[in-house]
Amino acid sequence: xxxxxxxxxxxxxxxxxxxxxxxxxxxxxxxxxxxxxxxxxxxxxxxxxxxxxxxxxxxxxxxxxxxxxxxxxxxxxxxxxxxxxxxxxxxxxxxxxxxxxxxxxxxxxxxxxxxxxxxxxxxxxxxxxxxxxxxxxxxxxxxxxxxxxxxxxxxxxxxxxxxxxxxxxxxxxxxxxxxxxxxxxxxxxxxxxxxxxxxxxxxxxxxxxxxxxxxxxxxxxxxxxxx
Length: 227
Known about the structure:
The protein is of the alpha/beta class. It has 5 helices and 13 strands. The chain has a single domain (60-224), classed as NagB/RpiA/CoA transferase-like (Rossmann fold), CATH 3.40.50. β12 (214-217) and β13 (222-224) form a beta hairpin. The radius of gyration is 17 Å and the shape is globular. It starts with 6 loop residues before the first helix and ends with a strand. Belongs to the 5-formyltetrahydrofolate cyclo-ligase family.
């Protein structure tokens, strides 16, 4: 059972691997041992830096090739159609560029949305996007739709920095995807997408970490995570 937000979380006082307090996401009210939390935080920071270095070493042509492989796999995995809302993302820091796939899905009738941070340390909103939409700089200078209608997503495409054998995602450390998915009334189809070197044995998942249902890697491999 998820606990309500604690006062330190509301005040933005407590810091962690993902910066905000996750006391509201503790399982059955059981806290994580502080030493364990600190050790996991250090491990994840080191893994993020390792994987970011691998991204930086990737050539533009290699990144484009991996993006194309993922897009081709997603075309088979997600049938874009009228009435389907897909929450994707705007690529930053060497993430796979799925904007051509997003455009194709839109042209096939699907609604496309992008994550927008409305408030730090809170779930994101998904705002409608379409090709040619005016964009502005959001929090942390991530491009977001200049004007957007908030929608609920049927499919969430989550960028992976790392992916472990159980389907848990290593992201940029903000905790926004976990927080957002935990706050939704129903779980959408959640698909992680990452480079072909993103796999790792474990991220040492914490109680608030939410696994991917499926993942697509830069070599086109599709992984179904049984949970």
